[in-house]
Amino acid sequence: MVSLKLLFLALLSICARKSFAFESVSSLIRRHKFAARQGNAIWLSSDPEQDGFLRRFTNPVLDDPFLPLSDVASAQIVAPSLQVFWISLVHAPSPTWLRPIFQSGLFETRGSLLAPTLIHGAGLACCWLLGALAAKAYERKAIDPTVEGGGYGTVFATILKAGAFATGVLILGTQLDLFTEFGGFVQPGESEETDLRLLSAWVEVLNDVIFEASTLASFRVYLAVSTATRNNP
Asked: What is the model's pTM?
C-alpha cells in the first residue's frame, strides 16, 4: 500500500500542475500582469515578485522544459538506487520503505526491490520539485552561470534553497506518516518500540537527504558547468 506520506506529497505537488506547461522565459516576460489606462498613458507591471510566493508554484518560469523531467529521474531513480546499493554494500539494515509490496506464505514474494524503491523515490521527487519551484530553480540564471545576474554563486544558492525547502517537506511528510502510524503524537522515551521506530525514521530521513542532495547537487553543478562551457567555448 502506498504510504500516506506519498499521498500527502502528491497532493502538495498538485499546486505545481502548471509547471509542465513549458512556457519560455521570453513568453512570460512579454506577458504583462497588470494594465491600467489613465488618460493617454498605460501603466504596466510585469514584476514577478509582485505576484507573491504562490505564483512560483502555479505559474513558474521554465527556461528549460526538460529540466523538471531530468530532476524527477535523478530524484526518483538515481538517488534511491544508489542508496539501496550502498545499504547492500555495507550490509546495513534495510529501511522500512524497502519492504515487499506483496508477501504471503502461499505465494512468492513480489515487489521486494524495484517497486518499493520507485514508490519511495516518487515521494522524494515530489519534495524536490516543490523545493525547486520555491527556489526558482528552473529559471535560466539558476542553471546558466554566464547570464547577467547569475554566476556560480547563484547556482549554488539556488541548490541550497531548493534543498532546504525539500528537506522541510520531507520532514513534514514523515511526521504525518508517523502520526498516522501511531494514531497520535509520540515522544522519545515512551517505549522501546516507539523509540526504535523514531530512530529508524530519523536515520531514513538523514539517508534520503544525503543521497538526494549529493545526486541532485552533482547533476545541477554538472549542468551549470556544461552550459557555461557551451556558451563560452
From this structure: 0.75
